[in-house]
Design a protein that fits this description.
The chain is built from 14 helices and no strands. It is mostly helical.
């Protein structure tokens, strides 16, 4: 029997590897643009065309639900085969067949008004169905709904509850957000040590915004000892990942160095 979340009968064929990698990336909260790029890179590494992937996904029936979601994703996020109607139809078939990722992506369509009229309440219900099935990314999207009042009322305690479930499943964005909740005391008591733990978890896994937040912890002695060298290290890591806040902070720190140097020279001169 095929698992609702993770196909148990994947072979080592390239198309199956791409499908498995796709689901793993969704679970970790990798950006959709990066996932689309990874799909194309994997095709290139196997000397396969995007057209061959689309054809394979369209006719494959053994894992219809899993492959339907990957097909929909390709039609939504890869420019060369962009087709909103086909993407929505693929997600809808997967959702109608009770597939967790089908609920997830169909919910995203209703939330973002992609190929369908915007319906936040419908999106919320679909996210909740998928989240209750253990889908980490759906748990993240559901937490966002409670945080921002999307299709439901704002509830910070429930938002933290679902972010925490998602974080524990390995979702990087959720891990960073749990850190933010603990640092700010949203939906719970403020706890800088727990904030530091979750920032560090996501930062070590490579999430730039978490790397910036971790650097701030080291600079401000939040949940850990003050350590300027480690703060600088993580600011640089975050900036290398194109985090704007980290780039600004590095520039500010460099300006502080210049000012201190000028002051020292002035003082010596006097």
């Amino acid at each position: 029997m095929i698992s609702n979340l993770h196909p148990e009968n994947y072979t080592n064929g390239p198309f199956n590897q791409i499908a498995k990698s796709f689901l793993d990336s969704i679970n970790r909260g990798v950006t959709y643009c990066d996932i689309a790029l990874d799909i194309q890179n994997q095709l290139e590494s196997h000397n396969l065309s995007l057209e061959s992937l689309i054809e394979k996904l369209t006719i494959r029936t053994q894992y219809v639900r899993q492959f339907r979601c990957l097909l929909g994703f390709c039609h939504q996020y890869i420019k060369e085969c962009f087709d909103p109607i086909k993407a929505f139809e693929a997600y809808e078939v997967a959702s109608d067949n009770g597939y967790s990722y089908g609920h997830l992506f169909l919910g995203i369509c209703f939330e973002t008004e992609f190929a369908v009229e915007k319906d936040p309440e419908r999106a919320f219900k679909l996210y909740r169905m998928s989240a209750n099935d253990g889908n980490g990314h759906a748990q993240y999207r559901l937490a966002r709904c409670y945080h921002h009042g999307i299709g439901t009322t704002v509830d910070m305690e429930k938002s933290l509850e679902w972010f925490l479930r998602s974080a524990e499943s390995g979702h990087l964005g959720a891990q960073n957000n749990v850190g933010c909740f603990y640092k700010s005391g949203l939906g719970t008591r403020q706890n800088s040590v727990k904030a530091f733990y979750w920032y560090q978890t996501a930062a070590m896994a490579g999430l730039p915004c978490a790397q910036f937040n971790l650097a701030e912890c080291f600079r401000e002695a939040q949940g850990t000892k003050k350590d300027y060298k480690r703060a600088l290290y993580w600011y640089k890591k975050a900036a290398a990942g194109d985090d704007l806040n980290a780039k600004i902070q590095l520039a500010n720190l460099e300006n502080e160095k210049v000012i201190k140097k000028e002051r020292k020279i002035d003082h010596t001169f006097i």
